Amino acid sequence: MAVTSNWCRCTSCHAGYGWKDKSFDFAVEKIDCLVCHDTTGTYKKFPTDCGYPPLKDKVFAGKKLFKAVNLAYVAQHVGYSTRESCGKCHFFSGGGDGVKRGDIDSTLIAPPKKIDAHMDAKGLNFTCATCHTTTAHEIDGRHYDTPAPGKRELALPRYEGHLVKCEACHGTRPHRPEKKLFDWRLVKLNDHTDRVACQTCHIPLYARGLPTNTYWDWSTAGRFKDGKPIVKMGPLGRPEYHTKKGTLKWGKNLVPVYRWYNGTYSYLLPGEKVEAGKDPIVLIKPNGSPEDPDSRIFPFKPHFGKQPYDPVNKLMIVPKLFGPKGSGAFWAEFDWKKAAAAGMKAAGLPFSGKVEFVETVYYHALSHMVAPREDALKCAACHVRQGGRLASISGVYLPGRDRHVELDKIGQTLCLIALLFVSIHGVARIIIALKRK
Amino acid sequence: MKQKLYLYTRFERLWHWTQAFLIIFLLLTGFEIHGSLEIFGYEKAYLWHVYAGMALVILTAFAIFWHLTTGAWRHYWPVKEKIPQICYYYLVGIFRGEPHPFEKRPDQKLNPLQRLAYLFLKLVLFPLQFVTAFLLLSYQWWPALGISASFRKVAYYHTAGAFAFLFFLIIHVYLATTGKPWYSHLRGMILGWEEVELR
After folding, report:
1. Residue B199 has pLDDT above 80, yes or no
2. What residue of A is the nearest CA neighbor of B94?
3. Prediction ipTM score
4. pLDDT tens digits, one per residue of A273-294
5. Residue A81: closest CA among A116, A128, A135
6. Segments of chain A with pLDDT less than 70
C-alpha cells in the first residue's frame, strides 16, 4: 500500500501542506512548522485534507469532530517539539495508535520506566529530540540517509551533533561496574557490542505498550452485512475484521525476529518486478551480513500482510484506496480491480486487469521502548542449543548453540568407551576378588 | 612385608586435590557453556568457568615453580622400561593376583605409563586449554595483538581438549582404585603416606 493516489488521506502525516497529487512541490514554505512546534495541543490536521488543518469545525467519518484551529493562538505559543507533537503522527502510523511500529505508541507520552527507560516520565524524561538531535532542522533518524549503526563513536560530552545512536552516549563498551572495580560479567557483555546491537538485548519484547498489527489481510476487505460495513473487535480491543481494511491480527509483548543489519534497507519499489513464490514477498528487507564489520544483529518487527498483486505484469499493485465515488477508490466502491486500475494509472505503471493477493512481509527495526536493565535478555535467551532467539542467525560461533557435531560425537564415544572399559574391568576385579574369598 | 612410604608432600596433595576440584568444575561449567549440560544456568556457568580457569592458571604457576625448585619435575621424565609389562599387568595380571611390575619408591613415585600420561597432560593438554582459553577470552584484542585466527576453530580445539581431559579423568579415577587394598592409592594421595609391598 502506497501513498501514491491516496495523497489527501496519507499526507495528513506524510508531509507538509497540500500534497494532493504527484505534482507536489517539496518547497521549504510547504513545510508545516506548527505540526512540530505547537505547544498548545490544539493544532490538529484534518485526516483527509491533504495535510491542512481544519479552519472551520469539521466532522471526520461522521463521528469525530475536528475543531477549527485558531492559528494566531497556536502561532503565539510555538516552542520546542514535545513527545505529543512528534507523537501526533509517529505514534499513529499505520492508521492508528501503535498499528505500524510496535515500538512507538501513545504510551510514550508519559511512560513508566518499564516501558521506556529513557522516556520514563518520573525519571530521565527524555523527549524524542533528546536522541533525535537536529542540525538546521535535519532530524537524525535511522532510515533513508542517516543510518544509525555504522560509525560507532562516543559523542559525549559536549558534542552537539548526532546523538541518535546508543553508542553516541553509552560508548562502545557501555557496561561499567557501579560498585566493584572490575566485573568480568560486564567485560563479557561489552565484548558483544561488536556483533550484537544494544537493542537486541535491551528491547526484549515489543508492543509492550499497546497492541500492534502483525498481519493485515487486504484480500478479505469489502464485506458487508445487511448492506452495512462490518467492524468486529478482537480480544486486544482492536478490530479483527474491518470492511475497509480486511482481516487483521494483533499482538502484545511480542518476541522480535533478528537479522544482520547495517542500518540500511532494500525497498521493493513501485514498478519493480517481483515473482510470487511460496515465501512471502519481502517489501522492505534489512541489509547486512556477518562479513560486514558495520553490521550487527538487530531486532525487527516483521509485519505480514496479504496485498494485491498483478500476476501478469508481476508487480505489486498500488491501489487507490481513498477518494470519492466514481474515482475507483476502494473505500468508496469496494472493487479491487477498479482500485488497482486507478492506483496504477496514478503511479504511471501498467496494469493487466488481473488482481491476485500475495503474502507479503516487511521488517521494521526496533529501537524504541528500551527496557530497564533488569529486563534485558539473559545469556540463555540466545546461548542455548535449540529454540534460542538467535537460532536463525548465521555467521557467528554462538557458544551453547553451536558445536562441531562430529567432534562432539567422537569425544562422547571415546569417553563412553573408556567408561565402559573401566566398568567391565572393575566388575571383573570384584567378581574375581569375591571368588577368591 | 609392607612398608609405609611418604610419597606425596603437603604441597603436592594440596595441588593435586585443588587441581582435581578445578578440573571437574571446569568440565561441568564448560560443558554447560557448550550446551551439553544444564546445571548452574548459562551466566553463572560462564562466569565460574572463567574464574575457575584463572584459579587453575595461578595454581599451575605455583606448581611449575614448585616442580622446578624441588627437582620434582624429574618424576615426569619419560622412561621406556617395563611399559609392555605394565600393560600386560592391567589387562591380565591384575586378574590373576600377580604383583605390579613397577615398584614405587620416593625417588620414582610414578610408573613409566603414568610418566607418559602426565607428561602429555602437562606438555600438550594444559597448554592447549590455556592458550585456546586465552584466545577465546581475548578475541576483541586479536587485531591489536596481531593474532588472526577463527573463533570457531579455537572453540573446537578447546572442546577437543575438554573431551581429552574427561577421557583422562575417567581412566585416572578408575586406576586410582587398583591399589591393594583398592583404596590404598587414594589414601596415599590424601594422607601422603602409602603402604607399599617390599620385595
Report:
1. no
2. A429
3. 0.93
4. 999 888 999 999 999 999 998 8
5. A128
6. 142-161
Chain centroid to CA A104: 9
DSSP H or E stretch at residue A286:
strand A281-286
For B50-72, write each residue's pLDDT tens digit: 999 999 999 999 999 999 999 99
Which residues, at least 6 apart from A326, have a Cβ–Cβ distance to it below 8 Å?
Answer: A332, A333
Give pLDDT, residue A196: 94
- A395 φ/ψ sector (left φ>0, alpha ψ -120 to 50, else beta): left
Residue among A384, A419, A429 minimizing CB distance to B95: A429
In this prediction, residue A13 carries a pLDDT of 78
C-alpha cell at B30: 564448560
Residue B145's H or E segment, with its range, is helix B142-145
> What is the pLDDT at residue B21?
98
Q: Which residue does chain A place closest to B90, by CA atoms?
A: A425
Backbone angles phi, psi at A39, to 5 degrees: -110, 0
* Cell numbers representing residue A233 in the block: 473487535
pLDDT at B165: 97
B47–A185 CB contact, under 8 Å: yes
Q: Is the previous residue joined to A372 through a cis bond, with omega within 30 degrees of 0? A: no
- From chain B, the residues in CB contact with A403 under 8 A are 34-35, 159
Q: Outline where DSSP puts E strands in A311-403.
A: 315-316, 356-365
Closest CA to A403 of B32, B167, B50: B32
**Residue of A40 and B47 predicted with greater confidence:** B47
CA dist B133 → A79, A188, A383, B37 (Å): 57, 14, 18, 20
pLDDT at position B67, please? 95
Residues B148 and B152: their CA atoms lie apart, in Å, by 12
Q: Which of A141, A158, A156 is nearest to A89 (CA)?
A: A141
**CA A165 centroid distance within chain:** 16
Residue A104's closest CA among A118, A87, A121, A117?
A: A87
Angle between helices B10-34 and B151-175 (to 10 degrees): 130
Q: Are A411 and B159 an interchain contact pair (Cβ–Cβ within 8 Å)? A: yes
Architecture of domain B15-179 in this structure: Up-down Bundle (1.20)
B159-180 burial, b at 16+ Cβ within 10 Å, e below that, comes to bbbbbbbbbbbbebebbebbbe
Global pTM reads 0.90
Give the Cα separation of A164 and A216 in Å (integer). 31
Closest approach of A376 to chain B, Cα-based (Å):
13
Contact criterion met (CB below 8 Å) for A320 and A5: yes
Cα gap B183→B106, rounded to integer Å: 19
Angle at A252 (CA atoms; ends A223, A286), nearest 5 degrees: 90
Q: How far apart are CA B38 and CA B28, in angstroms?
A: 9
Mutate which of A180, A378, A383, A437 to disrupt the B interface (most B C-beta within 10 Å)? Answer: A383
pLDDT for A149:
46
Nearest residue to A32 (alpha-carbon basis) of A89, A73, A92, A84: A89
Task: Say how far apart CA B43 and CA A39 lie, in whole Å.
Answer: 48
Contacts of A194 (CB under 8 A, 6+ apart): A293, A296, B140
pLDDT value of position A186: 93
